[in-house]
Amino acid sequence: xxxxxxxxxxxxxxxxxxxxxxxxxxxxxxxxxxxxxxxxxxxxxxxxxxxxxxxxxxxxxxxxxxxxxxxxxxxxxxxxxxxxxxxxxxxxxxxxxxxxxxxxxxxxxxxxxxxxxxxxxxxxxxxxxxxxxxxxxxxxxxxxxxxxxxxxxxxxxxxxxxxxxxxxxxxxxxxxxxxxxxxxxxxxxxxxxxxxxxxxxxxxxxxxxxxxxxxxxxxxxxxxxxxxxxxxxxxxxxxxxxxxxxxxxxxxxxxxxxxxxxxxxxxxxxxxxxxxxxxxxxxxxxxxxxxxxxxxxxxxxxxxxxxxxxxxxxxxxxxxxxxxxxxxxxxxxxxxxxxxxxxxxxxxxxxxxxxxxxxxxxxxxxxxxxxxxxxxxxxxxxxxxxxxxxxxxxxxxxxxxxxxxxxxxxxxxxxxxxxxxxxxxxxxxxxxxxxxxxxxxxx
Length: 443
Prior knowledge:
mainly alpha, Growth Hormone, Chain: A, globular
């Protein structure tokens, strides 16, 4: 399908310019996601806390999606997509500036509050932009269009990883955890000085990010974006829409699957550093390099899969890549030395298709109901708040003679990929049945 057709409007014009503007936001929240993942290991070392406690960074970061998803959907249903975007950008840039007082206070919980406010803003952006992208062109190319837009999300993620590696991790004190514990006991003032310096190092890139987001806020506030009005606008009340969604088995299964997918994505990227440190003795900054390789593979996979979707059914491609992810996760668990890390990194190319494809399958043919339906899929991002602390807890408590606790903890990501595989298989089967029954709206 040509780009002209993919972005054509019903009036014969083109949605290409608003599509480009919206796609830039995908990169912007990708940056926030992946400058944050390495901070789990950073806070653990700086503040001398457990893997579980440090994983609360992810709980706070992704918890905002859970809290704000449904209010955001109701907000954009009442107003419009543009209002949702501007509100999200406002919360985003305010949260970035909260990192400065958090560093001065030397309070872990102040950092968690800043992360929470940030994802309240990101919840507005994701709840708004994903269905908006789906509506900017013909319905038959909606999933392909969303995959293409999502291809720019990992470009922002890769940039966030680079900033985390070069401007945060590489500039933190080189003192090990044992050295910090000793210093805490023998020279509390010196230990506090190191902590203050490290926390300042973390806050500076976030404040700089806030200035960039402020520029985007001004750009979108003064820009004119197309108002998309579905043919069934006003057909259902909010209560009726929610009841319809709860009866939609495909949608409910998609929300559940998205919950597991986001959880596994954050686990894989968060614990690459711990895996490389504990299994191979790598430094954090070196391990972050492997995280960047994983993201590079993720970026490549997004563009490759966007192309493959021209020729393969989304559900079948999803099933295939979920199966491959299971195999690679087993390699992460059972293969020793560098080969296990290679398997862990390679999972990213398989994950590249999953989020937008699950999203596209879930909202296929929903029209106006997609505004509220998108809330459930953004709510499912809460999987990123639940699963990383669970994996961190496993690393803390799971001790066996035959396998390390870090490698054992990857049975949790394996479970998530099994759920995604089941969703792909179920939808592939439904599509075949729909073809035999000559259905008009295949999944």
